[in-house]
Amino acid sequence: EKPFINALKGKTHTNPPMWLMRQAGRYLEEYMAIRRSVSGFLELCYTPELAHEVTMQPIRRFGFDAAILFSDILVVPDALGQEVTFVQGEGPKLKPIRSAAELTNFNEAWLHQRLEPVYETIRRIRKDLDETYPDTALIGFAGAPWTVATYVVEGSSSKDFANTKSWAYQDPQGFQKLIDILTSSTTDYLLAQIENGVEAVQIFDSWSGVLAENEFRKFCLKPAKKITKAIKEKYPDIPVIGFPRGAGLMYPNYVEETGVDCVGLDTTVPTGWAKENLADKVCVQGNLDPQILLAGGEELDKAVKNILTDLSGQPFVFNLGHGIIKETPVSHVERLVDLVRGRV
Ligand code: 1CP
């Protein structure tokens, strides 16, 4: 009966349910206080008491319709044995894996053992929500294999993905082995999240927009289809949200072929187009530009109203088109909530 879950399953609401990607994080002073109490970012992800607390912070402040597990997409390579660290101001650092021969460094047998604290976090959040916010759903998530692969291969954030693409284009069969390992471990990870209490899952393919059609089909679309199918076979009731950021003209293919229940629209997708071409097939989620939320003012009001006008007539979840920016004033988020709830 939760509004967020109902929307994913095809229900239309006058005021759509809402949550924000990266809703727990650096724009909240209460997050920063906890962040300062740990030495590394992954320590926060692997400490159930703290990860539970930061997951709840945006729910207490804004009353969103969904909480998202506080973790990171890079816990998967970390759990497979490729140690991940986060360097202040620089982002993630990994020892790069750049050939099929190096894939022996991965060990899928370690996955659940290393990720047990995440499962404990899920159980704690779910209990807290059931007791305190019974209408709020819990979202689990993972990075899509292609997006996680870019960090595995580059060893950090990247602008051109040169190493990942050169492996993918020069040795497609070897690269496919990496994608296969990430697809199976991501599937196992998401199934375990469901077993421990998440009520929907989102697959973040943040860098799917940089591939040519053939590679998009092989490395983004197919893995998302496999993961979705495995989840549906075991848990037909758990909705799957796919977020193929930057997929552009491939959005309809992604929706038709993966079988996701909901598709996340990035900021560049015209909402009128989405209404015509996607919304009759799946629930859509999105897609306010995080920069407009940062800017605030009249442009924020106008942009939110446009999205609501175009998309509220069908199954729809209000969200940003990408993660919230850390400089965003809390007052702008409060204004956004009032706009989407129809209070102003
Ligand atoms: O010290 C800190 O506070 C680090 C900042 C931070 C946070 C708050 C990172 C480092 N990850 C997170 C949490 C996080 N990451 C969540 C939490 C739940 C939420 O509130 O939404 C989620 C869903 C993610 C997912 C994630 N991590 C993605 C996919 C979504 C997206 O934004 O595109 C990606 C690409 C990452 C990798 C990552 N994690 C963190 C950094 C700095 C990066 C690199 C980003 C890049 O390469 O641009």
Radius of gyration based on Cα positions: 19 Å
Largest beta-sheet details: 7 strands, parallel
Secondary-structure element pattern, one letter each = HHHHEHEEHEHHHEHEHEHEHHEH
In the CATH hierarchy, the architecture is Alpha-Beta Barrel
Low-confidence stretches: none
How many domains comprise the coordinates? 1
Please, how many helices? Answer: 15
Bound ligand species = coproporphyrinogen I
- Overall 3D shape: globular
In the CATH hierarchy, the third-tier topology is known as TIM Barrel
- Percent in strands: 5-15%
Strand order of the largest sheet: 1-4-5-6-7-8-9
Q: What would you call the structural class?
A: alpha/beta
Query: How many beta-strand elements?
Result: 9
Helix content: 40-55%
CATH class (first level) name: Alpha Beta
| Average pLDDT level | 97
Q: How far is the first residue's CA from the last residue's CA?
A: 26 Å
Description:
- With 344 residues, the protein is α/β, with parallel strands linked by helices.
- It has a single domain, classed as Alpha-Beta Barrel (TIM Barrel), CATH 3.20.20.
- The chain is 51% helix and 12% strand.
- The protein contains 15 helices and nine strands.
- It has helices spanning 3-8, 29-36, 41-45, 48-62, 75-80, 111-132, 145-154, 162-170, 172-195, 213-234, 251-258, 271-277, 290-295, 297-311, 330-340; strands at residues 66-68, 84-87, 91-94, 137-143, 200-205, 240-244, 262-264, 283-288, 316-320.
- The strands form two sheets. The protein has a seven-stranded parallel β-sheet with strand order 1-4-5-6-7-8-9. The chain has a two-stranded antiparallel ribbon with strand order 2-3.
- The longest helix has 24 residues, at 172-195.
- The structure holds coproporphyrinogen I.
- Coproporphyrinogen I binds at residues 21-26, 35, 41, 68, 70, 72-74, 86, 91-92, 141, 143, 157, 204, 206, 323.
